[in-house]
Write a structure and sequence with these properties.
Its cofactor is a divalent metal cation. Belongs to the metallo-dependent hydrolases superfamily. Phosphotriesterase family. GO terms for molecular function: hydrolase activity; zinc ion binding. The protein is an alpha/beta fold. It contains twelve helices and ten strands. The chain starts with 16 loop residues before the first strand and ends in a 20-residue tail after the last helix. The C terminus is likely disordered.
Length: 364
């Protein structure tokens, strides 16, 4: 989360974390979820309900429908409107703090209804440090205006979102991402990736990538960033838990040097609606994947989060909420032989200098 020493950063930003309320020291972060959403819309990923399920897809969210909703979260239009749940999210953030959480990286970018004033209000009212994301989500959400922009124009906008504020506000983003890519990566997304790399060079800040839903997608996105001069050691590849399953392919990707993010903790569904060839892993399988990467020496390159982006994952709707990792996954990791120093070393995307004790404190 650190802003590095870039050509365009101001001296006071260098080495600091830029939250929606201003700059903080890295040591103030506390335990950090590096990939969450607090307010957003996800209509761009609506999946038509299966024949016969149209009634369920249009029904109000009720206890008796929760199992269907958990298995078909993208087929229920209202479920895609997390932006309607500000009060519920505020309650969740207060619980997250009680559970030992300190900070959240809010990955909502242009295209999925970023709302910086709401993020600032939530940070003020809950005491959770919130770091907002700059840049653009996937191609289907790009406006005609965005599509026509040059790489230079896109770069200027991303840089300005970090240096001066975004969406007509003075609220500054602190990371670039999540930058959306589809599979295959579209021309407009390639321009945004190149602009991301150029902006990162100017600012020295971390980048977070949403890969397309194909095993070749993470590597291809990293290659484009690399060719445009991006700093891969300060780049996070998200959603690996639905993208890379083969251990050898995972290791090949890990060698490219990005952070490796397992950020769908709490998602337990049979089918991955966007790619029916995928068997979605359980949380236990995610913990096993982390154990594999730790054995292979990548413990300081792993990040974990829940990527909450729909209503049904909030506790208000019977979901696991933002505290699931702290309350359930960390104890599970310990019970499966992960050492507390390894859990502590699941670090922030800071280029390796974060005080890790502050992320996962010694009592674990
Ligand atoms: C905006 C949230 C997001 O992109 N989450 C990832 C969903 S999925 O692509 O892994 O299905």
């Amino acid at each position: 989360m650190f802003i590095g020493q870039g050509r365009r950063t101001m001296p006071e930003q260098s080495g600091k974390v830029q939250t929606v309320l201003g700059l903080i020291e890295p040591g103030q972060l506390g335990r950090t979820m590096t990939h969450e959403h607090l307010t957003m819309t996800f209509e761009c990923s609506h999946v038509p309900p299966a024949p016969g399920d149209e009634g369920l897809a249009a029904a109000p969210i009720e206890m008796k429908h929760l199992h269907w909703l958990q298995q078909n979260p993208y087929s229920h239009s209202e479920n895609l409107l997390l932006n309607q749940e500000i009060e519920a999210v505020k309650e969740e953030l207060l619980c997250y703090r009680k559970a030992g959480g300190g900070s959240i990286v809010e990955n909502t970018t242009t295209g999925i209804t970023r709302n910086l004033p709401v993020l600032r209000k939530l940070a003020k009212e809950t005491g959770v440090h919130i770091i907002a994301g700059a840049g653009y989500y996937v191609d289907v959400t790009h406006s005609d205006e965005t599509r026509k922009m040059t790489v230079e124009k896109l770069t200027d906008i991303i840089v300005s979102e970090v240096l001066h504020g975004a969406d007509g506000t003075d609220i500054r983003c602190g990371v670039i991402g999540e930058i959306g890519t589809s599979w295959p990566i579209t021309e407009s997304e390639k321009k945004v990736l190149r602009a991301t790399a150029h902006a990162q060079t100017q600012l020295g800040c971390p980048v977070i990538i949403h890969p397309g839903r194909n095993k070749a997608a993470p590597g291809e996105a990293i290659r484009i960033l690399q060719e445009a001069g991006g700093n891969i050691s300060k780049t996070v590849m998200s959603h690996l838990d639905r993208t890379l399953f083969d251990q050898q392919e995972l290791l090949e990707f890990a060698k490219m040097g990005s952070y490796l993010e397992y950020d769908l903790f709490g998602t337990e569904m049979l089918n991955y609606p966007f790619n029916l060839d995928v068997d979605m892993p359980s949380d236990s399988q995610r913990v096993q994947a982390l154990a594999f990467l730790i054995r292979e020496g990548y413990e300081d390159r792993i990040l974990i989060a829940h990527d909450i982006h729909t209503k049904h994952r909030l506790t208000k709707y019977g979901g696991h909420g933002f505290s699931h990792i702290l309350k359930n996954i960390v104890p599970k990791m310990l019970s499966r032989g992960h050492r507390s120093h390894q859990i502590q070393s699941i670090s922030s995307p800071d280029g390796g200098s974060a005080p890790r004790d502050d992320l996962y404190s010694p009592e674990f």
